[in-house]
Each structure stands twice: as C-alpha cells, then as structure tokens.
Amino acid sequence: MTTPLDGGGVAVLSSSVNKVDSSSALNGALKCSKPESPILIFLFFHKAIRNELDLLHRLALTFATGTRSDLKPLSDRYHFLSSMYRHHCNAEDEVIFPALDIRVKNVARTYSLEHKGESNLFDHLFELLNSSISSDESFPRELASCTGALQTSVSQHMAKEEEQVFPLLIEKFSLEEQASLVWQFLCSIPVNMMSEFLPWLSASISLDESQDLRNCLINIVPQEKLLQKVVFTWMEGSSVNTVEGCVDHCKVRCGSRSLTHQVEKVNCVCESTMTGKRKYSGSMIDVSDTTGTQPIDEILLWHNAIKKELSEIAVEARKIQNSGDFSNLSAFNERFQFIAEICIFHSIAEDKVIFPAVDGEFSFFQEHAEEESQFNDFRRLIESIQSEGASSNSDVEFYSKLCTHADHIMETIQRHFHNEEVQVLPLARKHFSFRKQCELLYRSLCMMPLKLIERVLPWLVGSLTEDEAKMFQRNMQLAAPATDSALVTLFCGWACKVRSEGLCLSSGAPGCCPVQRLSDIEENIGRPSCACTSALSNSHCSVLAESGGNKRPVKRNILELQKNEDVPETLETESIQKQCCSARSCCVPGLGVSNNNLGLSSLSTAKSLRASSFSSSAPSLNSSLFVWETESSSCNVGSTQRPIDTIFNFHKAIRKDLEYLDVESGKLSDGDETIVRQFNGRFRLLWGLYRAHSNAEDDIVFPALESKEALHNVSHSYMLDHKQEEQLFEDISCVLSEFSALYEALQMTHMPEDISESNFGTSDTNTSDYIKKYNELATKLQGMCKSIRVTLDQHLFREECELWPLFGRHFTVEEQDKIVGRIIGTTGAEVLQSMLPWVTSALTQDEQNKMMDTWKQATKNTMFNEWLSECWKESLVSIAPAETSDHSTSQRGAEYQESLDHNDQMFKPGWKDIFRMNQNELESEIRKVYRDSTLDPRRKAYLVQNLLTSRWIASQQKLPKVPLEGSSNSVEVEGHSPSYRDPEKHVFGCEHYKRNCKVRAPCCGKLFTCRFCHDNVSDHSMDRKATSEMMCMRCLSIQPIGPICMTPSCNGFSMAKYYCNICKFFDDERNVYHCPFCNLCRVGRGLGIDYFHCMKCNCCLGLKSASHKCLEKGLEMNCPICCDDLFTSSATVRALPCGHYMHSACFQAYTCSHYTCPICSKSLGDMAVYFGMLDALLAAEELPEEYKDRCQDILCHDCDWKGTSRFHWLYHKCGLCGSYNTRVIKCETSNSSCS
C-alpha cells in the first residue's frame, strides 16, 4: 500500500414539503432593512400563496382518500391560484428582474426559467382536471401527487427568492426605488386582476399583517389622492373576499355590482356628479337609440384605429425601403411593438369577454393566433436588422422582407376585422341591451394593465372625432360600477389629455372636467400641468413633476385615506370629482412608470391571460406565438462535442431513475416484496450518485463559472437548489425507512401475497390500522417521488438552458478538460464502479464511446484504463454472487446488475465469445478491426489491445480454480502458521500491517503476512494483484482471497476493516481508500473527502493543495535522495514548491544542509532571512583590490534571470529578485560596471 502526499408529496401530506415559515421569512428577508421596506408586500404575497397551496393540498388529499365530493370548487381554486400566481410571476419578469439585472448580473434569468417550469406544472394539473371525466381510479391519487409537486416547486422557488433576490433588492435599491419598482409591478397587472388580487391578499394574512400591508401600499402608491383612492378601493372591495366565492375566471370580471347608477349631466364628457352616484339616464338611452348608434359599435373604432396605425407602419416601411436608411429603426420598432401590444390585448379581450357572451361556441382564436405569430416574425426581422446591420449583400433582402411582412400583417388584420364585423357585431346589437354592451366594452378595457391603459386611451381617443370621443367616455362612465368611480375618473382624465391644445373634450360646454379640482390637492407641491401629446410620442407628459421617465412622482405628503374610516365614500368621491369652471387641461395624475418595456409586457401578460383560460384549446406556453425573447432556445447546444458535455450525460441517467421512482412508487401499495426491495435499492443508488453529482458541481463546476468576471452570481441559485433537493431526499429516506419497517412487520405477522385489507380478517383491529397506515405511507411516498421528479427535472432543465451554453462561450477545450479531470479526480473508486454502468445504461453506444473518450483524454496521464480493465475482470467474476446477494441489491438497486450486464460491452472489445476463441479466430478478429474504416486509430488500438490480452485474462481468471502444488491445508506449505503484530496481546499481523490473514505469494507459493515481508526474505518481488489465495490466521485454512473467512467455524470472521479486491490489500487499523487513477490503495479517507487526484501530476494530493504547481507525471519518478520509487512508495511523500517530490523523511534530512531542489535547483522555501544574512555578510567583507571591479555573468535559478553580478568566490546576488540561488555562467576578466 502507498501513502498519498501531505496536504500541505409531493407531498400528499403536508409534512413532506419543506415549508418556509412565513413569519420567519419576513423577519429574515428584512433583517438588514427598515421595517417599512416596500419589498414586504412580496413576502405577504408569498405567505398567501403558501396558505392557498397548503389548503389545496389538504383538499386534494381528502379527495384522494375516499371523501369524493364535487370537483368544481376544487377546480375553481386551482384556476384562481394559477391566475394570481401567473400574473405575479409575469410582473416580476417584466419589472423586478430587469431592474435587478441592471445592478446585479446573472441572478434574474434563473428565476424566470423557474416561472416557466411552474407554469407548465399548472398546465399539467389542468390537463389532469379536464381528464377527470374518465373516472380512472388512479385519478384522485395522481391529482394529490401533482398538487404536492406544485406545492413543493412553488414553495422552494419562493424560499429561494426570499434568501437571494429580496436581500439583493433591499441592499441595492433605496426605499424610494423599491417603492417605484413595486408600483410598476402593480401597474403591470391587468386591472381586472388587481380588483381580485388585493382583496384576496388582504384576506389571506392576519389582521396585523393586513395593517402592515396597508402601510406598505401607502408608501408604494404615488401620493396622489386619486391613485390612492383607486388602489385602496380595490383592496377594500367585496367582490373577491374568499376563493370559494370566485367565479369562472376565464370570464373577466371588473366588478360585481349591477349598473344601477346614472350620470346626471352629459354636457361634459368626463364630468360626474357631486355625489359620485350615477344612474342610467333614460334621455341618454333615448338619444342613443334615436341616433341609431350602439355602444358595441365602439369595436369599430378600435378596428379603425388599429388599421390606421398599421397602414402608417406599412407606409413607413416603404419609406425605409426607398431611402435605405436603417438609422431610425429603433423608433419604428417601438411604434410597431406598441400597436402589436394593443392588438394582442384587443384579441384577448374579444376571446375572453365579447365572444363568450355572444356565443359560447363562437371563436376567432385561430385568427388571433395567426396575427400574433406574424407580429412575432416581424419583430424578429427588425431585431435581426438591428443586430446584424444592412450590408451590400443583405440590404435588398431586408427591404423586401420588411415591406412584405408589413403588408401581410395589414392584410390579415383587415380580413379578420371584416369577418368579426360581419359575424359578431350584428349578434351583439341584436341580443344585448345598451347597458350590457357598455359593460362588455368596459370589461374588455380592464383586461389591460394600468400602465398600458394610460398610453392606449390617449392614442385611441386621438383617432376619434369629438362626438365619437364624447360617446366613448360617456359609455365608459355608464358601464363602470359604483366602486370604480375613481378608476373611471382616472380613465376619463387620461383620455382628455390627447385633445388639441390640451383642453378637455367638452371645454366649450358648460362646466369643466371634474378632475381639474385635483390641483387643489397638490398645491403644496406646485401646480401640475399636462401638455397632451400624440399617442405614439415617446414623451408622454405626466401631470406630475417628474425628472425622468423611470422616476415616480415627486415626494408628497402621505394621505391618511385608511385612517379616516368614518368619512363616507361619497364625500371622498365628491372631493375628487368637484368641478372647476376654468377651461384648463385635465389634471389627473400620471402613473409615473416607464413605458420602455412594453414589448415584454405583451409577452408576459398575454401569456398569463391566455394560460388562465378554462378552455382546453388554449395554446401551450411553449408555443412560438408567445416567444418574444431575443435569444433562440439555449438548450440546443449543437452537434459539437465538448469535454464538459460528459457532465450533462449524468442528467439523462438521473431522469431515467426519476421516472422509475415516479412510476414504481404507484405500485408500492400492492405490497409486492420484489417491488419494495427494488424500489428501496434504486432510491438509495440515485441518492448517493446525485449527491456526488451535486457536490462536484458545488465544489468544482460552479466555482469555475464564478471565476469568470462575466459570470458572477450565475450559480448561486443552483447551489440553493442542491440544498433543497438534499432535504427532499432525506425526507423521502425517512418515510421510506418507516414504510419498509412497517412492511416487514406486516410480512412477519401474516406473510400475505398482497398487503391489502382483503387478505385479513376485519376483526383484527390492529392489522387494519397497520394496513391503513401502510396505504397512507405508500400514498405519501408516491407524492414525494412525484415532487422530487418534478423538482430535479426542472433543475436539470434550467442548468442545460442557462449554464450549459456558458462553457462553450467562456471556456476553452483545455479548461473544460481540466474541469472534467478535477471532477473525476474527486470521485472515489466505489462511486465510479456504481456510476459507470448507471450512466451508460441511459446512453446510446455512440454517447458511451464519446463519454469514455473524454474521460480517457482527461485521465491520459493516469492508470485509469488499467483500473477500468481490472474492474471489468472483477465484475465478471462477481456477477453471479451479486445477483443473489440481497445486501448488494438493496445497496445498488435491483436493476443495477442488469444494467451492468447490458453495458459490459463498453468495457469489452465487442465480441461475446472472446474468451473461447482459438488462435486463428483471434487473428481473424484483429484483421477485421484493422480493416474497419469507421474506427478511429485510438479505438482500433484499444480493441486490438484487448484482443491480444484476452487470452491472458482468461487464463488468469481460471487460476483460482486450479490449486497450486501443496495448496491443501498441509503443514508442508511454508509459513502455514499465524504471525503477530503484538504477541503479548495476540494481535494478528506483522510489523507493517495489522490484519487477520496471510496471503499466498503467486510466485513461490509461500505464505506471508504482506508483500514487504515476502520481499525482505526473497530475491524477487511479489505481485500482490496476482494473489488469489489467503490463509485465515484463526483457523489456518487456505482459501480463495476475500474480505472474510469462509470456514464455517470462523462464522464470517473479518480479515481486516479494509479490503481491496483489486490490490488484494488488507488493513485493520487505518483509513485507506483505493484511487482508481493511481490504481493503488492509499492512506486517507477518500477522494473528494480529504484528497483529490491531479490528472496532470498523476498523484493524490490533499484538498488544500488544489492550487499547487502541476508537473506532468511528476510522481512517476524515483526519490532524488534515496532513489526509491515514489509512485508506489509506502512512505509519506512531500511536494516541493517547484513541482518535484521527495520522501518527507528524505526532505527533513536533505534540508539540514541544502535549500535548493536537487533536480531543478530552485529554492525549497522562502529564503529571505538567509539572503538578508548574506547581504550583511558581503557588506562587511572587503575584496582584494584586483577583484573589486570584476564582474561575472550569472543565472538565477529562482527567476531564471540572466545578468551580471560583482565578483565573489561563493555568493552572487540576482539583480532582479535578490536571490543568492545563482550560478556563474561566464567570468569577465576585464573591468566593467556591474549591476
């Protein structure tokens, strides 16, 4: 033995999910912030989501355990939660994450990918709910499992946000900036969802937390009375107090009260009454009827405005084609994205509000999908032009495509609008009353978020005549419920901003805009002004003083809306809606949010609105219709094979085992012994190998990524994933142990073929309780396996999408080889023996060959190939015992041996009967290899080598079966007696090792305690790996070598604490491990624990020496002092700073008189003190006169500098580094100046 170098459910039950206590999360996330931090609102939302998930989980469990109730309320809860959570995620993707990414790179993208994964989980859950009509018996348990998987995934995601994202937001953003971000977040959620979101959030937390939420909103909402009135009206709304009362959320709802109010004055389009109460005016309805116009015809106004805008875009595209000037393409792109967003929301409003009301079977979904696809293609074309630029070869093609796409979109829109106007509008006019039509249009408008409505209303009203604009606002006022009085006032004010000279729509009429009185509220902060502009202008003016487009309105006194609970609502509304008589512009407040990312808004919000539909025909979130990201799929890594790809081959094997656990966990309730045993073994194997994979990423791969300046913070989220996943494995292990113990108890008691209540008498109460507990644990395990499959699968997917491409862009092939070598170098032999067949079973033959080629390239300086061959030989001998060993099966999984048999060809030349070939057949096969043109030279050499050595391998495998002369337990065998390490205490062994056996030398047939005992008395060395027999020193029986004595009288007596089947090595007192790259046993706890193997140096080093100086095959040499072989030496070896090695004992003796390496002459340590002494010595020494001006050319061994130094007989100082470790290379006889 040698010595390494000195280191120099789902959780179907709630306990199965790692819950994060909301109160502790709140305290932890705000530990470093002020208590009024606006980020607090996200933590409240997380708590509400956790409560809802926990409730859904319990309901699903109740449904699965036999209490079958109506599924409709449960389904409504699922859809409500999905709608709330999706809008929250999309608002984060649109507002929070882009802002964070500006100040902290490489954090947000991972969480956006997680949002997509969670959205897919919701989609899968709804597919399952829609399939419930099949009445499948497995449906309830599958529903509970999916709910638990969703709970686990979302809970872990929120816990990670609270641990990483929220502290960064608190650290990198001031309180004012945080408030601005949260306000933009709220303005990015559709209006109809905000009216449900805030009441639900307030009802889901405690009263104290609800008050904290209100205080939070006071700081978040701009301190304009109208805006605060809008938000707090939503929060105090009664339309969505509980989820139980929610209705079908595919039909958008902006209020629950009927339209029983009336506008008393219609002289001013945007004015309201003093009381804020409105009732439908009969005269107004009569006027509408007599004029022949109906509110539903406003859809025509939207159509005309959209067609006009698209026509102008097409004209602009022609101008670009004619001029060939792409310099103004950014403005053109912004204009296009704005109209594309309007079209998307207009389509969604029609699909979810107008068409379902007209006819439930009526749909223009395909037309809408085609339009969105064309918008997406046009946007990509513009971005490709911007990124690539127009060249002489491509400009004509760009011009043509730009105009063609613009014309095609215009044609599609016109055809679609014509069909709607002919088929839909007549039905709406015929079947809907005036009031109903107004209501549908208002609900359609509320499908947009506030930040878009603020921009869309001026754009739309700007395209109308004055009469059309008045009618539009009048209908909007009539349709809005009484609770939306502040909101409709805000809408009317925004619509007024577009009129000429910034005046109110009815400035010539008696009275003025009701919201002009708002200036009184803001007297303390200066008189606001509004210069109304074109709808498509980038400089939309705010009615509030702002210093930048991204900044919130100026500071103002916080309104005490919530404290004046005794003030009637009508008085508050009256104070907002009082009229003034001057014809000034409408003074409603602006939102103060940025409109620079509208394109992303349409992507994210449209996704959530589409996905929230109950209709099964809704497109998948992965559909190209909604993919607006500029990058193509990063998961497509191309066909080029890279060394780092070998790491991701493990992902295939992990997914295969996760699928096995998910499927087989559903069979545990059957009580089949084979299934239970196989499941337990497969789970333990996956846990151990995944832990090794995660540790390799945390310790090697992720630090390598973080070492690149452009990739800082990219891996933190994945390290948090590993911690959470390890906890999931531990939870499953605990439940599985409890399940196995209960299963064994039931088997010992009754031994039934199937564990089910039908196999027992009903009178046995205890047995019935056991069976009930058994089924509960089986259901819990099924849910937990579903959870861990979903969690790990999403984690692996995100790694492949985000991290995998980074290696190709930031790492050379050599750097990737080094990373792979470091990973393999920290993996122990036992893990590799289990890992190789496990991984290769999930790969194709070509992938296996590529992976092994990568490994062999990374380990080319080591003995890895030798170890691989010996492992294969040992596996052939041990296949039969392994198949019958229950212990082996439980440790590595019942199917491990099958995968090993299936993948043996990876380690073989490729012929089944290779060991039965005669000489002629063998030569024939070798010729076939050489003639095979599909094999590369390395593969040919590998196959031929195995063929040539196969005969010897076969003969060696037969050696244990052929006893040597005198191999019987006869006293004639020399050494057939026990030896003692401590004769007084009767401790077996020798002076070298403590062990309970002797080994029989294959060379001379004699028995020795160890190979050193043999070599000390023999004229030849013993090949320990060829040893095949041993003698137990307790019973003196000679038998095949192994870890225990096979004699019945010894009853499995252990030969040593450690036994290596490759080295045939025993040790009963030290920690020893076998290094597969040295192919030797070394002292230590193991690779990856306290040592690693350096692939370049080909030696085991302490983990603290990870940054050592590498010297290729540095240990494959003799000690420069004693000339013993260092690689196989049992003495401690020391690494020198220069990269060479020597025995530690030799180093101690050598440095008593030397300080330089005997091989390269570099200093063995820091010699500053010694060199300082020499400086003092030379300063005091005076040379003879004839030598004073003489110089010598020297070479410094430490820095390799060549120069001159003053003459001396012994000491010559380097002029560069100050070292005296130099030698003279030339003597100067003439005088010259010296350095």
From TrEMBL:
One of its GO terms (molecular function) is ligase activity. Residues 1055-1118 form the CTCHY-type domain. CDD domains: Hr-like, RING-H2_Pirh2-like. GO terms for biological process: intracellular iron ion homeostasis. Residues 983-1052 form the CHY-type domain. Residues 1119-1161 form the RING-type domain. Keywords: Ligase, Metal-binding, Zinc, Zinc-finger. SUPFAM superfamilies: CHY zinc finger-like (SSF161219), RING/U-box (SSF57850), Zinc hairpin stack (SSF161245). The keyword Zinc applies. Pfam families: Hemerythrin (PF01814), zf-CHY (PF05495), zf-RING_2 (PF13639), zinc_ribbon_6 (PF14599). This is Zinc finger protein BRUTUS. InterPro entries: Hemerythrin-like, RCHY1_zinc-ribbon, Znf_CHY, Znf_CHY_sf, Znf_CTCHY, Znf_CTCHY_sf, Znf_RING, Znf_RING/FYVE/PHD. It comes from the Eukaryota.
